[in-house]
Amino acid sequence: MADKTALSLPAVAERTLGEPRDLDAMLRGAREPFVLRGLVRDWPLVQAGLKSARAARAYLIERARPVPFTVSLADPGSGGRLFYDAAMQMNFRTARGKLADIFSGFDANEGRANHPVIYLGSIDVPTHFHGVDAENRVDLGARDPITSLWIGSPTRIAAHNDFPDNLACCVAGRRRFTLFPPDQFRNLYLGPIDNTPAGRAVSMVDFAAPDFDAHPRFAEALAHGQVAELEPGDALFIPSMWWHHVEATEPFNILLNYWWRDTPRYMGQPQTALTHALLAIRDLPEADRAVWRDLFDYYVFSGGDEARAHIPEEGQGALGPIDAQGAARIHQFILRSLSQ
């Protein structure tokens, strides 16, 4: 069967930034992805990568803290796809070591046609490097982002989504993102939520060779897909919960991304609530599930105004507005409930 991913998907919209300070307003409330060409081209790390892959690696080695780095390794036959094997176990292994030692693996394999996959994912920049965050930075206004680096040989990362908003900056090499709106999850054939390559459920579809007999609804997902091709210095905004398949296409690739959420960090993770609901609610009799669906609508998805309107403000507890202290009390309440 023909590879339908070879069909031309529309490109993600490109936007133009007038002044750096305009980025804050551009991101505020944005719910569609967009590309900003050349946003970070002046970064020292981008300029080092434009000289050579070895220059980019040297820049990072000079600034690496004396802490272990986690690296994922896969055999050449994986085609760069970090995924499951036939037994639904990961097709890669992880190790820890000094950045210079890990980077020596790139040096040893430079120019080889059939080389192992080397991938460092979600490296917290302040924890692992001196000065990299300060020297290579986007002004995101009052946002308090998590800054991460993703470094590797050619890789294919299965479609997944993230809860925070994401500004992904291509630093070295090239990245191809294939994006889908949040409502396309049914058409992406997601895998398990408790056995994942990197903490998020991923699409089981091989985008390089999709099996439309096994995954017929993937054709519908493609009808809603968009593609962004990033070169060094380009940035892509990925709104919260948008699905994205990520390919690093050059022999050596670096991405730096910023994650942030509009809600305070003391708020819980929705994924945790979903996982617990699987345990507590999914296998109840159908009539009971219907009652709990109504309760969730009443207390959660409606915003909860009706649920608390008749209770004095000082007695609303978890039903009232949640601040940091209230979040801590709810967290302790949940822990006590789980221990019973």
Automatic annotation (TrEMBL):
- Gene3D superfamilies noted in UniProt: Jelly Rolls
The source's superkingdom equals Bacteria
Boundaries of every JmjC domain copy: 104-275
Question: Native species of this protein?
Answer: Novosphingobium taihuense
Q: Which PROSITE patterns match?
A: JMJC
PANTHER family named among the record's database cross-references: HYPOXIA-INDUCIBLE FACTOR 1 ALPHA INHIBITOR-RELATED, HYPOXIA-INDUCIBLE FACTOR 1-ALPHA INHIBITOR
Q: What is the official name of this protein in its record?
A: JmjC domain-containing protein
Residue ranges crossing the lipid bilayer per the database entry: none
Which Pfam family is one of those matched by this entry?
Cupin_8
InterPro entries per the UniProt record, alphabetical: Cupin_8, JmjC_dom, RmlC-like_jellyroll
